[in-house]
Amino acid sequence: MNIRKYRSSFRVYIVDHQDDRRSSIGDILSAMDYSVAEHESIDSAISTIPVDPPHFVVLGGDFVAPTEVRQLLDLCPESHLVAVVEAGRVQEYYPLLTKGLYDVIAWPLHDAHQLVAAIDRGAERDYFMYQNEQIKEQVKSLKTELAQRAEAIAQSEPKTAITLVDELVVSGDTDEGVIEELQNATSEILSATTSGQGVDTYLQTIHRWVQRPVCLFKYLAARRSLFLAMAAGVSLDEHRGLGIDFSREKEGFGAHLLKDPSALPMLRDLVRTTFKVDNFTALPIDEGDSVRSVVVILQGHMGNKTIPTRLLTKVLGAHLSIMALQNRLHSAEQVDPVTQVWNRENFEIKLQQEMSRSRRTHLPLSMIVASVDNFGDLRANTDQETADILMRSLAGMIRRNSRVNDVVGRLNEDEIGLLLAHTGSRGAAIKAERLRRMVEAADFTKVLRRDQGITISLGVSEYPSFCHDGDELLRSADDALFQVKEAGFNKVCMAPLPEGFVADFEVGQR
Question: Which pTM does this prediction carry?
């Protein structure tokens, strides 16, 4: 990740009685946008901790001792303590690393970047932990919400439909045979173990009632299109690929319009052209929070089948809602709900697994971090649905053009990560450039409803050539991405080789 844009959120205490050193360290970190507070003594720092707790405490050498370290950690156990000591005495302080000290930096600084890098590492760690906690809370909240919604649907919707069936029986407005079929179909749909079984029961039942073809069209939000998914009385092979691309609508299209499908001109044209029928019935299958399917019955006047058909449609909607919620519950802890690739937490788990395998096999592991250029501006000028569709499209494009064992995950709102096992830096750079060109050439007008295209910037790094562990691999790839953003957009950047870096092992390029 790029911790630079979050530095100002981190509070750093500098505790040192040497004015020059304290001031110099403060200037360095302030210039890097960290929020700095200087203290001449431990007592001064301790007095402000309750009202202004620090994320980091940089201690001058005279204050680095077991007693002070323990005292500070007791007051602010989540803070990182960094010691700045005379160069010739660095090793004397290493034992304190086991007592809670986070890092030891030699003074005078050979390179200011050394100090900044130490603070950045801790800040990234804290940010990732915070982000993972947020994800866990979101997943927990989502699971609770979905479970409650599933329970509510399971208890209310089918009972409502069954109650209406009973009222229909009492009214005597419908043939007893139809009522019996309705009752049987309702029970069969609600007991189906898959959505496909429930839909098939629904279609076959309606088809028997009207003796006319019945088609179910599914809505693909990512493409703003309806496509023929299942049918009764119609050969799917003869109508393969049949559908409607609503992105061609000049006045735009919103999913809310599916609640009244009979009013959609493009649907009327499709039925008239394909099936040579002017009068038909189109019903939305409401799955609670949205319409994801539309059923088309090639008969206009349903007669005494109207109420049973609408009742069975309501039952099917309840069934599909429950199936969808159960699927979301299953995947909530593993994948990003928008892009359907690994979420950040699971991507990092995969990263550690691949890192362990790389160490065992002595084969390289590369990472690409891709970010949508000018995403902030795009997000400000469009709605959440469009932004989600864009990220889902980008993640899908990367996943479809990757190998089976490659790992794709969503790292941030505008970032997708890609792990390439057994791939060296050269191969990863070639892959990144191929993805960049692919996105640049792609037509996103159906997603964004505008002529301007989309570009991405990509950062590339590799273990063991540029880093020593998984955290460094992710950070170095993200640093490379930041360099692209600083210099311009729509480019690929390789992570720089750290000064004096020694790889864990040597590998050939792939």
Answer: 0.53
